[in-house]
Design goal:
Elements: E1 2-6, E2 9-13, E3 30-32, H1 34-37, H2 41-57, E4 60-64, H3 70-84, H4 88-91, E5 104-106, E6 123-127, H5 136-139, H6 157-182, E7 197-206, E8 220-223, E9 229-235, E10 240-243, E11 249-251, E12 259-263, H7 265-270, E13 280-282, E14 290-300, E15 304-305, E16 323-324, H8 325-336, H9 338-342
Parallel strand pairs: 3-4
Antiparallel strand pairs: 1-2, 4-12, 5-6, 6-7, 7-14, 8-13, 9-12, 9-14, 10-11, 10-13, 15-16
Helix pairs in contact: 2-6, 3-6
The structure holds 2-oxoglutaric acid and fe (ii) ion.
Keywords: Ethylene biosynthesis, Iron, Metal-binding, Oxidoreductase
Enzyme class: oxidoreductase
Cofactor: Fe(2+)
Length: 347
């Protein structure tokens, strides 16, 4: 039994070993998002109902027919490999600590997603919407908004990464419609709240872990995500593990032409824990490096997240006080990143 501290409270994991129980993949449902593109409202509602079932029972699901071009993803991975292959000193010219907006390069072991661990064994490039420094929200100190930090090379990196970001944000809009239907709300309920969304993308590179793996230093320690939901593309071998309700780590391997979607803590709060933000972790024992691209999708910075009235009744009183979306995310970054703990004037 291990205890994991998350922003929404303490969670218990079942076992302390690193092995996964190989459970049939029907455990993590696969949803065909073509239903959300249908002009027939019944098709869209049916897809919403599948999302509801997945979010209440599992907190994770795969999607296919998501509308993201494989060529856009392939180019993003190719350019990212070239970026991560640069000398460390070159990558550190855009170290994330140089950005007041949480953008740029994060070296190995400078994040610690599970406070009980000793650093995550991955390196990362972080970006979000490119918002100019003179934008009123940036000037107002809403630190999730601001300009990205780009490396001088490889030349093709910036356009490839931005094309991928744009496609994943479009998928995020489709998913927010599906989440609204899943919650039996108007389909466009969330759309006025995502004009300037806190949509944060990362490109992650995990070196292989061979031999005896230190349980306190894995690819990414057990955690739940912070935002409303995560859109994850995986490249390479299976390394992602998801904790099921019985406390068993279940493998979530890459399935060709799909994304993994998972509920984050902000959506758990918004739904009064009707939707579960499930613990997960990464251990790359494939013997090869592994890349993945998560995009964490949340609403506009000032959106107040308090349990939806449709998710409350006498038996389910509100579990969480209201929080401002952007402030909640920043408080979670503070717990995770070395550079935010050593900054005297973090915002
Ligand atoms: O790389 C992965 O498969 C998952 C990454 C993840 O859980 C995260 O970045 O929050
Ligand atoms: Fe995660």
């Amino acid at each position: 039994m291990a205890v994991v501290q998350t922003g929404n409270g303490v969670r218990i994991t079942g076992d302390e070993g690193l092995d996964v129980q190989r459970t049939a993949f029907t455990e993590i449902p696969l949803i065909d998002l073509a239903g959300m593109m249908s002009p027939d409202e019944m098709d869209r509602r049916r897809t919403g109902a599948e999302v509801r079932k997945a979010c209440t029972e599992v907190g994770f699901f795969y999607v296919r027919h998501h509308g993201v071009s494989p060529a856009v993803l392939a180019r993003c991975y190719e350019e990212s490999k070239a970026f991560f292959a640069l000398p460390e000193a070159e990558k550190c010219r855009i170290h994330i600590r140089n950005s007041p907006n949480h953008r740029g390069y994060g070296p190995l072991l400078e994040e610690n997603t599970n406070p009980d661990s000793q650093g995550d064994l991955h390196e990362a490039f972080d970006l979000a919407g490119d918002i100019p420094a003179n934008d009123p929200d940036v000037l107002a100190g809403k630190a999730l908004y601001g300009p990205n930090l780009w490396p001088a090379q490889p030349e093709g990196f910036k356009p490839a990464v931005l094309a991928c970001y744009k496609s994943l944000v479009a998928l995020g809009h489709t998913l927010f419609r599906a989440f609204a239907l899943a919650l039996e709300l108007e389909e466009d309920y969330f759309l006025p709240l995502i004009h300037k969304p806190c949509a944060h993308m990362r490109i992650l590179r995990y070196p292989p872990q061979e031999g005896v793996v230190n349980e306190k230093q894995i690819g990414i320690g057990a955690h739940s995500d912070y935002e409303c939901f995560t859109i994850l593309n995986q490249n390479g071998d299976s390394a992602l593990q998801v904790l099921n309700a019985a406390g068993v780590w279940v493998e979530a391997p890459p399935i060709p032409d799909t994304f993994v979607i998972n509920v984050g803590d902000m959506m758990a709060r918004w739904t009064n824990d009707l939707f579960c933000s499930t613990l997960h972790r990464v251990i790359n024992r494939s013997g090869k490096e592994r890349y993945s691209i998560p995009l964490f999708f949340g609403p506009d910075y000032d959106t107040v997240i308090s349990p939806l009235s449709s998710c409350q009744d006498e038996a389910h009183p509100p579990l969480y006080p209201p929080v401002r979306a952007g402030e909640y995310i920043l408080s979670r970054f503070d717990e995770t990143y070395d550079y935010r703990q050593s900054q005297p004037e973090k915002v």
